[in-house]
Amino acid sequence: MKTLVIGLGNPILGDDGVGWRVAEEVAKSTANRPEVEVDCYSLGGLSLMERLTGCERAILIDSIFTGTKPVGTVSRFPLNELPDVVAGHTTAAHDTSLRNALNVGRSMDIPLPRDEDVSVVAVEAENVYDFSETLSPPVEAAVPLAVQAVLELLDAQPAASRSDNRS
Is 120 exposed, middle or buried (0-12, 13-18, 19+ CB in 10 A)? Predict the structure, then answer.
């Protein structure tokens, strides 16, 4: 089963670069796993959907700001638990949320992972608009924890396999 791990964000905007940093470390740990592809990406929505074409499973790594958890907290959850913040907004005429983009792609028979086969590993961050190539100390300290969360997801049995085994 092909799994794509994508670090999202912008590596010159401080803590927004945490997805790239985690992905770089995951790439080192998975160098001998041909079923795992690791990439870094600065775009979302339709562009990210296109990048997911042909993958059976995806793990997205990014910074997140909920304001409810301490900076540096690592969370992991299925894509469908992420708020669909762009859906319904008229200000995003040229793009859309990833969830909506995946639904549109599937309606056009593009081979994409199912929602339950897309996981998110997020690191709580605040400084995502400051020009800097370094992470804040709490986000830097979270990198190994986020790497471990991604590796655990890679080793877990995918939802597609679990549902196939129910018959």
Answer: buried
Q: How far is CA 117 from CA 11, 17, 83, 132, 158, in A?
A: 26, 24, 17, 33, 7
List per-residue pLDDT tens for the chain, 167 residues long: 799 999 999 999 999 999 999 999 999 999 999 999 999 998 888 888 989 999 999 999 999 988 899 999 999 999 888 765 544 444 444 567 788 888 888 999 999 999 899 999 999 998 888 899 999 999 999 999 999 999 999 998 665 554 444 33
How is residue 126 written in tokens?
């605040």
3-state DSSP: the chain helix, strand, coil percent, rounded to 5? Answer: 40, 20, 40
Structural domain span for residue 103: 3-164
Helix (H, G, I), strand (E, B) or coil at 87: coil
Residue with tokens 């996981």, as numbered in its chain: 119
Domain CATH code at residue 94: 3.40.50.1450
What total of structural domains would you count in the chain?
1
27 Cβ contact partners less than 8 Å away, ≥ 6 residues apart: 5, 38
